Each structure stands twice: as structure tokens, then as C-alpha cells.
Amino acid sequence: MSAEIINGKELAQQLRNEMKKEVLALKESSNITPHLTVILVGDNPASKSYVKGKQKASNEVGISSELIQLPENTTEQELLTTIEDLNQNNSVHGILVQLPLPSHISEQKVIETIEPEKDVDGFHPISVGRMMTGKDTFLPCTPFGIVTMLKSKNIQIEGQHVVIIGRSNIVGKPVGQLLLNENATVTYCHSRTKDLTSYTEQADILIVAIGKAHVIQKQHIKEGAVVIDVGINRLEDGSLTGDVDFDSVVERASFLTPVPKGVGPMTIAMLLKNTIKAAKGLKN
Ligand code: NAD
Predict the structure, then answer these.
(1) Which of 54, 144, 180, 214 makes the best surface tag, with the fewest CB within 10 Å?
(2) What is the mean pLDDT of residues 268-273?
(3) CATH 3.80.10.10 for domain 31-115
(4) Full-model pTM
(5) Atom number in ligand 1 closest to CA 211
(6) pLDDT value, residue 283
């Protein structure tokens, strides 16, 4: 078997084309242009490049985006005050603080200061609680992107055994919750899991979010499994690769996401979706 590749770059483009129409319609019907404010603290090159990608994609669909760049030595209080001002500003629909933050600033405090109605990253504890209890909310972008990729290929989720490797708050834990909401049976694995292969070989859908190149190989998966590779790892030659050994796994999986052009572009597309949703207002 040779897996069908789920091209996240193409799917994200298709979604942006649809969102462009949605933004125009919103402007015509309600005279509202969705507005996203991104805050970047310091000059981490990877963060700068992520922020640039988010702004470019926003502009493409007609979302107005603003970047607030703060120096590395910004105090926690200064950042919190900036967020509080944006919370009060009715023309700002979505607020995103690019992580990671310098170590003298508490990420948790920052996340909890963003007004939940503007929490387009979906990291606020209220957003997380609403997701867990199946209420309308902003879904965290990477997990939302993964579920959208699965649905785009009509891959069955209900009743399937989903095995997730990685339990971070931004990927592993929430993607498991979203798939549980879709009636999957979910198993979480992590760095302390004993005999990882005994779980991965049972997976109908395997989601890998570890951050180590090529940990998952062909022998770890069952024939016909769907494999979603979330990892982004930089090789010595500067190129990017996933947590999954694409060349061997492609021979045994039924569907596989590549790195790059897989989950990454979908994450940004979901941020745009959340910003449009914020402009329209959350429903209960
Ligand atoms: P993290 O470092 O917070 O979590 C990594 C997880 O992997 C932990 O739960 C840990 O227990 C587990 N782990 C580590 N080594 C393991 C091993 N040998 N076996 C089993 N489990 C192991 O990472 P994260 O923020 O969830 O990100 C994971 C990867 O996904 C990174 O490469 C990151 O760059 C990438 N990422 C990509 C996107 C995207 O949009 N494509 C978004 C977020 C993160």
C-alpha cells in the first residue's frame, strides 16, 4: 500500500479562498471587518517568522491584522496592561500573544488575561473548559486543523482507536479531547509510556506530536493506519522534517500528512477561522 498524502498546504488555500468570501459577506451584511492583534515580545527568529506567516494569511482573506512588537525586556505588568487595553477595545476581535515568552513573564498569567471572547488561540482555561464540555468556543488551532484534515478526506473517526503520542497543552491533550468529542476511543502516550510500539501498532489513527525527528517508523504502525505528523524538526542541512519517517511509513499507512505542507499551514488557517468567529461573536 502507498498512502494517500493529505496536503495541508492545498487544503489551507482552499479554506482561505472560502474565508475570503465569508469576510466579504460579513463586511456587506454588518460592516464588520475581522481584526486580529498579534503581540510579539522579543526577537526570537522562529516566532518572528510564525507571526509573519499569520499576518500574511490574515491579509490574504481580508482580516485586518496589527502587530504589536515589544522589546525583550518588557515587564510582565506592561504586557498584561497592553492585553487589558486590547480587551477593552471593541474594534479588536482576536488577540494572540506569540509564545514562547521571555522567561521573566508567566505565560499562564498572560493567557488568562486575554478576554475569552477574543481568545483566538483557544488556550484560555475557559476556552479549554468549554471545549471539554462540548460548548461553542475557540478550538486550539493545531488540533482543530488536524480534525479538519481528517474530515476533509472523510476519514472515519467515530469508533476508531486514536493513539496520540505527546501530551502538551497545545497539541496532544486537546486533540485527544476533540476526537473523543467525535466518538473516537483515545489513548495518550508520552515520554514515560512503557513499550510505545504496543500502543502505536493498535492505532487506526496515529497522531504524533513529540518534537523528535523520525521516531515513528514503518514497523511501529499497522497496515492501513492513518498517520498525522505534527512534529517540526530542523535537520543539520536546515531543512524541516517531521516526527514520522515519511519514506518508510508511506508504504504502510492509508493516509499520511507530510512535513512541511501538512499540519503547519492548517494551524494558521484555523487561526483565521477563529478570528472570523470572534468577529461574529460566540454563541452559547
Ligand atoms: P512538547 O515538547 O510540549 O511535548 C512533547 C511531548 O512528547 C511530551 O508530552 C512528551 O511526553 C512526549 N515525548 C517526548 N519524547 C517522547 C518519546 N521518545 N516517546 C514518546 N513521547 C515522547 O511539544 P509540542 O508543543 O506538543 O510540540 C510537539 C511537536 O509539534 C514539536 O516538533 C513542535 O514544533 C510541533 N508543533 C507543530 C505545530 C504545527 O502547527 N505543525 C504546532 C505545534 C507544535
Answers:
(1) 180
(2) 98
(3) no
(4) 0.97
(5) 32
(6) 59
